Amino acid sequence: MSLVSSTPLLQHARENGYCVGAFNVHTLEMLQAVVEAAAETESPLILQSTVGTVKHLGPDYIAAAAQTAAKLHRIPIALHLDHCTDFDLIVKCIRAGYTSVMIDASHSPFDENVAQTRKVVEVAKAAGVNVEAELGKVGGVEDEIVVGEEDATLADPLECRRFVELTGVATLAPAIGTAHGIYKGEPKIDFDRIQAIAEVVSVPLVLHGGSGIPVEQVRRAVSLGMSKMNIATELRIAFSNAIKSVFDQNPEENDPRKYMVPAKQALKEMAIEKMRMCGCIGKAGQLI
Ligand SMILES: [Zn+2]
Fold first, then answer.
1. How large is the average pLDDT for residues 64-84?
2. 143-167 burial code (b ≥16 CB/10 A, e <16)
3. Which of 56, 113, 119, 202, CA to CA, is 20 to 30 A from 282?
4. Domains and CATH numbers, the chain
């Protein structure tokens, strides 16, 4: 298969009460591990890269690896650019083969957020590419974007509806109390707000800051309309911890395959666990 837009995957998820896992990957091995997890469990998959990773690896290398994954497996795979504030980089990624992009103008006033998002929707629609935008501000640290707890603001349901109408955006990430990174205490998810937004907005909703949310809370958020869950920090930790334990046992190790193989395995196991939590296992066949 070729890479697909994430729009039909997420619409199907919203209509059928599950969510699709969107996994942030930073290396070829991380990408392979997540792809193998999805292929073995017949799950639809969204591969994601942050702006930092796009700058680190280059969009062409990432898109080529994702396209190869799509060719090798009979599951729908989308490639998404996470939290981008730079219009030119979004265009570059679309040209490289990304099938989904996020324009994050959530730091700007409402009208400016609408204008920037519309501009991206116009370009992306012509290329059949999904667009995600954010309303309200998700707290925490995501690559180069840092939002302090005092600056995090929750999305207003009626503003969400107006925003979707004005921009034509295909997926919306409303801030509902989750945060990027690892939670210090229990996350304070505003479930009533998710429900209120889902009642007035028909496009699939995206849950950011998915690392460390208890399973029951994820399931509740999904049942209320969250159709995509972003998972980043926990994957990095699983991957890095596996590498650290190889070096703990053998500080002299100098063959990358010796530490990448266990790291891939650890990441793959975690990805399968997250796919189970999302409820997307076995759904691939309904989408191809
Ligand atoms: Zn995010």
1. 98
2. bebebeeeebebbbbebbbbbbeeb
3. 202
4. 6-286 (3.20.20.70)
Mean pLDDT of 25-30: 98
Contacts 24+ apart (CB under 8 A), 103-111: 103/131, 103/132, 103/133, 104/133, 104/134, 104/145, 105/133, 105/134, 106/133, 106/134, 106/135, 106/136, 106/137, 106/138, 106/175, 107/137, 107/147, 110/159, 110/163
Percent of the chain with pLDDT over 70: 100
Q: Which of 43-57, 100-114, 134-148 has the lowest mean pLDDT?
A: 134-148
Query: Catalytic residue at 82?
Result: yes
How remote is the CA of residue 101 from the centroid of ligand 1, in Å?
A: 12
> How many CB atoms within 10 Å of residue 200?
13
Binding residues for dihydroxyacetone phosphate: 181, 209-211, 230-233
